[in-house]
Amino acid sequence: MELVVVTGAARGIGAGIVHRLLQDEVRVLAIDMDESVQQSLNSSPTRGELITAVADVTDRSSIDTIAAEVRAEGVHLKGIVNNAGRTSTAALLEESPETFESVLHTNVTGAFHVMSAFLPWMLEQHSGSIVSISSVTALTGTFRRAAYSSSKAALLALTRSVATDYGAEGIRANSICPGAVDTDMLRHHLKNLPDDQRLAALDIVERRQLTPGLAEVDDVAAVAAFLLSDAAAFVNGAAWTVDGGWTAFNDLRPELR
Ligand SMILES: NC(=O)c1ccc[n+]([C@@H]2O[C@H](COP(=O)([O-])OP(=O)(O)OC[C@H]3O[C@@H](n4cnc5c(N)ncnc54)[C@H](O)[C@@H]3O)[C@@H](O)[C@H]2O)c1
Q: What is the pTM of this model?
């Protein structure tokens, strides 16, 4: 069975991607810093095979150790999904230097460590697909996301640079830019807002999209599975929005004006 590595896999979009991949005959290595990763992913029987590892993507030596261990098993590494991420909702002057650096460290340096650990294996095979979960905030201004949007733009650029530097050697690297996805990260953000702001935030989600509502994790997982697959053999260095049209227009839907 071919192997796909998914980070930040214990819940939300990462868990959705793991479940989607396990529908096929593939081995998935699900990495998360949350110790419940094994327990939270073990559900219904699947065609694929799940292995899990508890590790923080910012800890290079842990990631290197995991990569060396699975590589010793001699399987083919089909793909990597850089999904582990954290958010912060602050404008520049509200953001602490510690949080700013932590967001960059998790979202960018973490992906750097994971790709650095696994890319040599892909290069030896002359094949491999990398998918990074960026965000629409990498593409367009979003209020109070100074650190988060900076990190997601950097992740997009880092992923594109991998496509640029290693594309000729059989590596594909693409990003997905989701809009608002119904996960703990979004729910936590909404929960911390005062009531009027929470309703306003949900209203804005409706108004700024062409397709109403929140995306489900499966909407992102389906695109990740496609980008990992041979069906996307000629897709490289791209950023795929999964945002209900958020970044496609700058008007309000007429019935909501
Ligand atoms: N939910 C959204 O609306 C949305 C929109 C755009 C992009 N994204 C991105 O999608 C990804 C997943 O988001 P989500 O909403 O599922 O988040 P989530 O908070 O529900 O889950 C994130 C997972 O990543 C893990 N994680 C965080 N830091 C880690 C680290 N340093 N090492 C290992 N694991 C770590 C957490 O333990 C958790 O299991 C993130 O990169 C996020 O920025 C989310």
A: 0.96
